[in-house]
Design brief:
- The structure is a single chain.
- By secondary structure, the protein is an alpha/beta fold.
- It has two domains: 8-19 and 90-209, HAD superfamily/HAD-like (Rossmann fold), CATH 3.40.50.1000; 24-85.
- 49% of the residues lie in helices and 14% in strands.
- The strands form two sheets. Strands 5-4-1-6-7 form a five-stranded parallel β-sheet, sandwiched between helices. A two-stranded antiparallel ribbon has the order 2-3.
- Helix 1 (24-33) packs antiparallel against helix 5.
- It is globular, with a radius of gyration of 18 Å.
- 29% of the residues are buried.
């Protein structure tokens, strides 16, 4: 693909602007319910249960109720919500502040596979640690999979963002910490950069600025 001047940046959320620890969720389940619950958890994963929640085809109440039914009715929905939210680590406000100067030269949006439980926890964390700061304020627009009904790495998620903003794929770069998530963007003709999960953003931003050919 011939390089053109990058005018648009699509950022992922988890692993860039908030630390994520995916293993914490099954670890919490195993700690509380033992190994058999992990087998049930894997079956839910194979059925596309978690993907369904992230595209809004399963409500939060149904999400928690189905986990309770599949894993153990003895644990409350609150336990499953807390275990699910254990994935989330610290909000990295300094990383977000690096985005602000970019907005004078690029159009900058966010595309995240996320859901209402995580967003509620994220907003509470934001308010607690950074009063008055809102995630939306750091980007021209935010797109959450549960709200748009599409998730990465599916190509239609990237098509949606391009169409919503009138972006040209060849003038756009997508940054994510998951190699698999880059594939849908590449299929759409979008340039991609892999960011090391939970790492400082400086080097990745420098790479973006170097993509001005």
């Amino acid at each position: 693909m011939a390089m053109t001047k990058i005018k648009n940046i699509i950022f992922d959320l988890g692993g860039l602007f908030i630390d994520v620890y995916m293993q914490r969720f099954p670890d919490r389940i195993a700690e509380k319910l033992g190994a058999p619950a992990l087998n049930a958890l894997q079956e839910l994963q194979h059925q596309g249960f978690f993907d369904g929640y992230e595209v809004g085809s399963i409500s939060t109440s149904a999400f928690l109720a189905q986990m309770q039914q599949a894993l153990s009715p003895k644990c409350s929905p609150d336990f499953y919500a807390e275990a699910w939210n254990a994935i989330l680590g610290q909000v990295q406000l300094p990383q977000l502040e690096l985005v602000q100067p970019l907005r004078s030269d690029y159009r900058v949006v966010l595309l995240s596979n996320t859901n209402d439980l995580h967003l509620d926890a994220l907003e509470q964390e934001f308010e607690s640690c950074h009063p008055g700061a809102r995630l939306d304020d750091f980007f021209d627009q935010v797109h959450y999979s549960q709200r748009i009904g599409k998730r990465k790495p599916n190509r239609d998620a990237f098509t949606y963002v391009l169409q919503q903003h009138g972006f040209t794929a060849g003038e756009t770069v997508f940054i994510d910490d998951s190699p698999g998530h880059l594939l849908g963007a590449q299929a759409e003709g979008i340039h991609t950069l892999l960011h090391p999960s939970n790492a400082p953003l400086d080097e990745t931003i420098a790479k973006i600025k170097g993509m001005l050919c």
